[in-house]
Design brief:
Elements: H1 3-25, H2 29-43, H3 55-90
Helix pairs in contact: 1-2, 1-3
């Protein structure tokens, strides 16, 4: 994987995770799940390792990772309370 391919992978994941965050806020969990699968497919390329980046490319990668993490937090902010409600609804009454 070249350094340009590494950045392209992170840019794709950042864009997909941004769309996931928007879908989560809109309550479109079907789209969230579909985009999550697409993110996993793009991220699979990194499982074998990626070359280290330097200079501006390294800074860009860090910025993209921060963006991905913020998008992930936005999705979790919506889905975690929902999952808690679902767990309570499915739990037998005591």
């Amino acid at each position: 994987m070249t350094s340009n391919e590494v950045l392209a992978m992170y840019e794709n994941i950042a864009a997909l995770s941004g769309r996931m965050a928007n879908a989560a806020v809109e309550g479109d969990m079907e789209t969230v799940a579909r985009l999550e699968t697409q993110c996993a497919i793009h991220a699979a390329a990194a499982r074998n390792g990626v070359p280290p980046l330097e200079g501006a490319q390294r800074k860009r990668k860090i910025d993209l990772l921060k963006q991905i993490m913020a998008n992930d937090r936005a999705v979790r902010d919506v889905t975690e309370p929902w999952m808690g409600q679902l767990d309570r609804a499915l739990s037998p009454a005591h």
